[in-house]
Amino acid sequence: MRPSTVFIYGLGITLLAFLSRDFTSLLILSVINGSIGLYLGLRRGLKFFILLFFIGLIGVFINALLFANYGEPIIIFDGFVLREMFISSFILVALRLFSILGAALIFTSLVNTREFIRSLEAELYLPKDIAFATSIGIRMLNILSRDSEEIRHIRVMRGKSRYPLTPSSFLSYLRPLLSLSIERARWIGIAAEMRGFGRRKRSVRKGRLDRLDMILIILFLIQIIIIVAISLGLT
Amino acid sequence: MKMGGFDVRYTAIDLAYLGVVAAVSGVIFALTWEVYYIGELIGGPIGARILSYGLWFIGAPLAATLIKKPLSAFLGETLGALVETIIPTYGGFTNLIYGVSQGLFSELVYLLFRYRRFDSLTATLAGAVAGIPAVYLDALLFEEIYPLEVMFLILIGAMISGGIYGFLSSLAVKAVKH
Fold first, then answer.
1. Which of these, A166, A179, B78, B116, is most buried using a 10 Å CB contact count?
2. Which chain A residue has the Cα nearest residue B43?
3. Listed residue (B126, B131, B104, B123) closest to B46, CA to CA
């Protein structure tokens, strides 16, 4: 399966979730993508990521309760009233977020990072300069995550907060991170120039789409057709 | 390469800087979810934006202050968002959509100054204006929940936060380059 196909599918589903306003469209998106994404995500051990989503839903619930609890009462218990706008708002937003989660889980579960880096230029036709910068960024993630963890550890040892919660703590966190990274970047750039980066031709991968690519494309098209039909009032 | 009369030539070192800004931004963007949740516990949706949103806008002022070339702001924010999407984080592909939109708005600031200023003023403005598309996209995601007056306060909070962190990003780059 091509990483570019999964990337375009994930991005497309997220855009559809953003733009869909009605219950039926969001239900279709969330059922299809949420269930596939959950299945793949649990197989890949992304339980913590999925747990974060449900924790986030608590925030959505509270915000809906504070700002959208009006209309006819629907649920009443112990003097606590949940009204129709709260129910519909919460459900719509939850379905939207669940679709987005599903798209993210599908991408994360099916795509290998190295293959994705290669596909940026070869399949997605990003200019080679942008693909080069992106590949450096992705490859440096592990190193930077380690640097970031060390800086946060030292902050805790010095009695500061682990996370930069104020502007001054952000500055004390960012400066060492940048300092280390810029030095590395300078030498990466010099090495690339010495190897003739400017003369390198763009690499393009031509090839047919395999069965899994076709399944994903057809699934995407089906969802678009259904959602457009719903929005045009054809169903 | 000429783009609308502006010379856009990136060396391999510029691109390496861009890659590093993308990675630094991506790591900070991923961490900002925790800051966001803490902010929401303390101050609700408005407090969360004031505390955290500026952190999600720093890719643009960081890259622009460091590289000082056209498109650096847009690329810094967009590539940082792409890295955050791959990590992955709670936002999934929405991170990329937000990143592209925020990057475009930040880039407009430098364009308005005709790419002659890459200082703390432009970094502050670039951070602040990124709040506009961010809150608009929030409205698309959550419109059923927040009334208009709350969205307005959220916008102010996001722009203030963006301005502060844009300014700080420029200070950090200047401190490191010296």
1. B78
2. A63
3. B131
Q: Could you list the beta-strand ranges (E) of chain A.
A: 73-77, 80-83
CB B146 within 8 A of CB A97: no
Cα(B48)–Cα(A95) distance, integer angstroms: 23
Q: Which residues in chain B are contacts of A105 at CB distance < 8 A?
A: 92
Q: What would the pLDDT profile of A51-94 be if each residue is shown by its tens digit?
A: 888 888 888 888 888 888 888 888 888 878 888 888 888 999 99
H-helix or E-strand containing B175? helix B148-177
ipTM at complex level: 0.86
Tokens of A168: 């001054």
Give DSSP secondary structure letters for A190-209: HHHHHTTGGGPPPP------
Q: In Å, how far are A132, B8, B28, B133 from A121, measured between CA atoms?
A: 9, 20, 26, 28
Distance from CA of A227 to the nearest CA of B (A): 17
Chain B residue with minimal CA distance to A135?
A: B19
The structural domains of chain B, with segments of one domain joined by +, span: 2-177
Query: Would you say B170 and B117 are in contact if contact means Cβ atoms under 8 Å apart?
Result: no
B2-177 domain in CATH 1.10.10?
Answer: no
pTM of the entire predicted model: 0.89
Q: A136 and A188 in contact (C-beta within 8 Å)?
A: yes
